[in-house]
Design brief:
This protein has about 280 residues and is α/β, with parallel strands linked by helices. About 45% of the residues lie in helices and about 15% in strands. The protein is built from nine helices and eight strands.
Length: about 280
């Protein structure tokens, strides 16, 4: 297994860099990554301390620094050390400058300004947490999305992910012995989406859950016949109400959420246009 020292330098929170590095590293196998994370790099003295660490642990340097002097210093020192230093946002900014006819504002962390979108995201997260697992169904009409599915079909993590994308999301477990509230079948504003999965995968997830709780792994909760009937009951409910259905068996949370967002935009007849 190859070992890589990865130095991430940002004059803001570094969230963008972390996401870029994570996406890139996912394309490589058998790599042990030692991550050195340096946020809020805004002084030469701070940079000097970091450069000493880089010299002791040479590797790839990825940075987002808007101060020209700080950036120039980092690039020169990395060249002297024979290390690659990559500014991943440069090609995007160069293209935007050419198309828009203006230079980028050199303001660290400008994307984190507390604007209306920020508060909308906070509001969505609060709503989603308060409406998890069928709670407060009387307020579902205020939601953007309602997820329905049997237990352990990824409803909660998908809801939280959608909330971080500013969608107010409620979710409801579909239980054969306990029908959902009638309000679920008369919702007008939210998009109701059914989540389903394969019986084998669901049984595996449920068994792992039981084991993590120290409970016996042999119960009707993981019985093959019972689980198959449970899934069939849920699918029949989805079909009877004309709800779109997403099979999460081989999907990550991000992929499931992306499919749901596409359904929301299709329903609204919208294209996603940032700033509108």
């Amino acid at each position: 297994m190859k070992r890589l020292h990865l130095h991430l330098l940002s004059d803001s929170t570094g969230e963008t860099l972390e996401n870029i590095a994570k996406a890139a590293l996912a394309q490589y196998d058998d790599v042990e990554t030692v991550r050195h994370f340096w946020p809020m790099v805004r002084t030469e003295a701070h940079l000097e301390r970091i450069l000493q660490e880089i010299a002791q642990n040479p590797g790839l340097v990825i940075f987002t620094l808007v101060n020209p002097a700080t950036r120039r210093n980092l690039e020169q020192r990395c060249r002297a050390l024979g290390l690659p230093a990559v500014a991943p946002l440069d090609p995007v900014n160069d293209a935007l400058s050419g198309l828009l006819g203006q230079q980028a504002k050199a303001r660290p962390g400008r994307q984190h300004v507390l604007d209306a979108a920020y508060f909308a995201r906070v509001d969505a997260i609060q709503f989603t947490i308060a409406h998890d697992d069928g709670i407060a169904w009387e307020e579902w009409e205020e939601a953007d999305i309602v997820l329905a599915g049997v237990s352990r079909s990824s409803k909660t993590p998908t809801s939280i992910y959608l909330a971080n994308r500013s969608y107010k999301t409620a979710n409801i477990p579909i239980v054969v012995e306990s029908p959902p509230p009638p309000a679920l079948f008369s919702l007008k504003n939210p998009l109701v989406v059914g989540l389903t999965t394969s019986a084998d995968r669901l049984i595996q997830v449920r068994r792992n859950r039981l084991l993590s709780l120290g409970q016996a792994p042999q119960t009707p909760y993981v019985d093959e016949d019972a689980v198959t009937k449970e899934l069939a009951f849920a699918r029949r409910m989805f079909a009877d109400n004309g709800w779109p259905v997403i099979d999460v068996t081989r999907r990550s949370i991000e992929e499931t959420a992306a499919a749901i967002i596409a359904l929301v935009n299709e329903r609204r007849g919208e294209r996603v246009i940032d700033g509108e």
